[in-house]
What we know:
By secondary structure, the chain is α+β, with helices and mostly antiparallel strands. The protein contains four helices and five strands, in the order βαββαββαα. It has helices spanning 40-43, 72-94, 134-147, 149-156; strands at residues 30-33, 45-48, 54-56, 103-112, 119-128. α2 (72-94) crosses α3 (134-147). The relative contact order is 0.11.
Amino acid sequence: MDDKKLQAPPLSLLDRYRGRDFYPLYTTTVTASGGETGHARASGVVRSDDGNLNLELRLPTEFGGPGDGTNPEQLFAAGFAACFHGALNLLCKRMGTNIPDMAVEVQVAFARDPTDGGYALLIELRVRMPGIERSAAEEMVRHAERLCPYAKMARQGTMNIVTVVD
């Protein structure tokens, strides 16, 4: 086991960027492949370029699948919850507040979209901040919504680059 002590990210991540161009701080690549059914969502595998993520995907029972693996909605909810928690944690540290039992729960529903007949995601966040007055917690959550890129993406969309490769 590595003897390095885990550390939270630095408060300098709260500093505003004033550049003109998109300035990546971290980039990762995850590849999904189809597996047994040829359909990544039903039987695929997702792997990150560094090998730290390597998961089998399975359809949930609600779609007729076995439900014995993770699925894209769980992965998205996990990323959103972790990122939002991190944003709240940085904001709390900047204010000199420590909330050791703080938790962010993200519920993601894969749903039919009545506007176009296709599909959409419904995202619900629940934040627990024990020991913090409700109005102060609500203010911190509003600030975290502006800081967290997942919340920003859910509100404004993303910059997408789609390329077909050989």
